[in-house]
User: Fold Succinylglutamate desuccinylase/aspartoacylase family protein from Hymenobacter wooponensis.
Amino acid sequence: MVTDSSAAPTDLLLNGLVIKPGQSVLTRLVISRLPSGTVIDIPVHVFRSTEPGPTVLLMAGMHGDEVNGIETIRRMIRRNLLHPLRGTVIAIPILNIYGFLNFSREVPDGKDVNRSFPGNPRGSLASRVAHRFMREIMPLIDYGIDFHTGGAARANISQVRCLLHQDEETDALAAAFAAPFTLHASLRPGSLRETAMQEGRRIIVYETGESLRLDEAGIEMAIAGTFRVLHHLGMVENAPPAAAASVVCMRSTWLRARYAGLFRSDVHLGDYIEKGQVYGSVADPYGENSVRLESPVTGYIIGLNHMPVVNQGDALVHVGRTDLSPSRVDLAAPYDEKPMKPLEVEESDEDEEPADGH
Assistant:
């Protein structure tokens, strides 16, 4: 979507308020009430320039336990960094207030807001949150950055996720952000990205760290990347240069535990591993057996499970791949289960993300 920069800025209507060019406003979208009667509302910051330009959404806390994005937007607001030279910035530090209060990914009914778009005003709680967003926020924006974090003890290296090489504007946003890694990610049904694309809006996802833990380096990268996007859109005068070119991964593979036990990783986020390289081990807790883990693919470690106790099927490492040719992990039928033996090689035949993928 290209905003006509020659047109005069117009009034913006949000939550019953008329927000004029040049104004900065904090408004609160009332969603519902807790069983105690306490009102649950979503604070929304709006920063408008007197000059025409695009409207950019910065949003975090879609999953309430993902605090890195919340802290990223909080710092930009606190440092008074979101007043654009042109256009409008809408900043929502926490969308899922319920999850934030309960240290949870979901809302109290157990549903994921990011699988509930476009929502329903008479649907589940997650669906109602999504519907209110679609009614009040989506019609106003041109572009957006949705901040996320790895979940359930899984940490993500700083990365942008988006649909690559299918839309020039999305590609340009990802290139401008210039995260250490850029991952091609298909649109998921019911997600904000999918719904925004259908509405003609472009949203990229930024991931860093793990849930309920602050990732200081990833937060500062998020702020710098956000300013590069705003600079690309002509909304700020300067932006810090990227430290290095982004590594683009057009596909990725999750390596999963074939045996339950204690997982020990021999790799770190950002490491490059070759096919056949040992990346860790799974051992039984009684000291009788240990299974060596060898990677069936070559690529970069972009996600890592920090939980030492794993069950069969748990995601262990996420490998971002720059190759385009299929590998054994993509083509082979599932392996037959065999008894655990000392130093046995373990491989995975699954490519899909765990349930907390964004």
Remarks:
- The longest helix spans residues 216-232.
- Residues 87 and 177 are 18 Å apart (CA to CA).
- The chain is about 20% helix and 30% strand.
